[in-house]
Design a protein that fits this description.
disordered C terminus; histidine kinase; 261 residues; alpha+beta; 7 helices; binds adenosine-5'-diphosphate; five-stranded mixed beta sheet
Amino acid sequence: AETALLQAQKVQAMGQLAGGIAHDFNNVLQAVSGGAILIRRRAGDAAAVERLAGMVEDAARRGEAVTRRLLAFSRREELRADALDLGELLGGLREVLAATLGAKIRVEVDAEAGLPPVLADRGQLETVLVNLATNARDAMPDGGTVVFSAAAERAEDAAAAAPDGLGPGGYVRVMVADTGEGMDAATLARATEPFFTTKPLGQGTGLGLAMARGFAEGSGGTLAIASEPGRGTRVSLWLPIVVDGDARRLREAPLEPPVER
Ligand code: ADP
């Protein structure tokens, strides 16, 4: 059974998603209706009609791409709880991350020894890490370094570093740090918004960071981004350390945020 809080979080995420979709669709519809008006005006000019019809077709294709992204987002799996050893997970994913980043980029994996297990969905976390690696690659066309690290943090440190208040208990901070082009303040402010992207059409979905944030918050943790233009970007996820009462829930129920325990 779904908790009221989880339900509320989903509704909030869908609301944000709907806002992004509405915005993108509005742009598409404006291009289509503008194109129709221009075609009527230039009806006698075959070359102009041809060009304008092409513009309308392009806009319709953008509309289809928006729909596809919405479908992909709604098929997202439920989060399942796993007790994860992040040192083992990062070690196991190293080759996939290196392949994602390509030969020009150096990969470092730096997991603290003896990390306590965290409560999170393994498949989702792996997907998030690959998405973050893709972003790092896109930000470093001339190469650079990406460090994937995991370290236990006291709750106070996590709360001080994270923008929103966190529940009691400890967290492991997973960080992906690149030496890429970074983000300006306006991009950083919107980076985790669903469908926000600065990449050319067809290259970015604008969902990578939105899903990373949804994953962190759905796991009872949080996400924060630090970035400096020309220097690089650090994306941090705080994931809750497994506590005694979690054991029986593992693999049985969707995650609940720690405040409900
Ligand atoms: P996408 O990568 O499909 O654009 P994301 O949600 O992952 O969607 O990222 C949104 C935007 O945030 C990107 O278009 C880019 O402008 C910025 N961004 C994300 N990660 C990085 C990074 N590591 N370095 C610089 N900019 C980034």
